[in-house]
Write a structure and sequence with these properties.
Elements: E1 4-9, E2 16-22, E3 29-33, E4 38-42, H1 45-51, E5 56-60, E6 66-69, E7 73-78, E8 84-89, E9 96-101, H2 115-124, H3 129-133, H4 136-141, H5 145-157
The chain binds zinc ion (ZN) (2 copies).
Length: about 160
């Protein structure tokens, strides 16, 4: 996403943040509901070329939380890791508004279904720090930040000590 801003809609516990990204001419826009799955900054050469800046700022949302208005043209870029991403930009002003990565098309809208398996993984090989860490990828998607902190601290304590 590019050049977005958020407003709160609804009231109390029913409220959600609605994010809107819009191109320079206003023809193409994306509206996203709820909190992003991930927010990142990237300084790779491809992002510098795409944005014209020193960094790209990206907010990732589940596909079912995003609605697009306007016409877009697309280009495909295959990253260094071999992952294919499709970028959508406004054909009038050229601003990229959204992209979809093949690596994330399978991101489940129901991460809570993996919580039980994650809990089992933590206890499967408690001296293997990476296995203690892995379930935190699910914990963070479910908003269990306390488990993220505790499990990552535990995983770090189990790292092999290099003399
Ligand atoms: Zn435009
Ligand atoms: Zn990048």
């Amino acid at each position: 996403m590019f050049a977005g801003s958020g407003i709160l809609i609804g009231e109390g516990e029913e409220s959600l943040v609605q994010w809107r990204a819009e191109c320079c001419c206003g023809q193409l826009s994306a509206t996203c509901l709820g909190e992003p799955v991930r927010v990142s900054v990237c300084h790779c050469l491809a992002c510098k070329r795409r944005t014209g800046g020193a960094f790209s700022f990206n907010a990732r949302f589940r596909a079912d939380a995003v609605s697009i208005e306007g016409r877009a043209r697309k280009f495909v870029r295959i990253g260094g890791s071999g992952v294919r991403s499709t970028y959508s930009f406004c054909p009038i002003c050229g601003i990229t508004i959204y992209y979809q990565s093949d690596a994330e098309r399978d991101l489940s809208p129901y991460p809570e279904r993996a919580l039980k398996a994650g809990d089992a993984l933590v206890h499967l090989a408690p001296d293997a720090g990476h296995l203690v860490h892995m379930p935190t990828h699910i914990d963070v998607l479910c908003g269990d930040y306390q488990s993220v902190v505790e499990r990552n601290h535990a995983a770090n304590r189990r790292r092999p000590q290099v003399p």
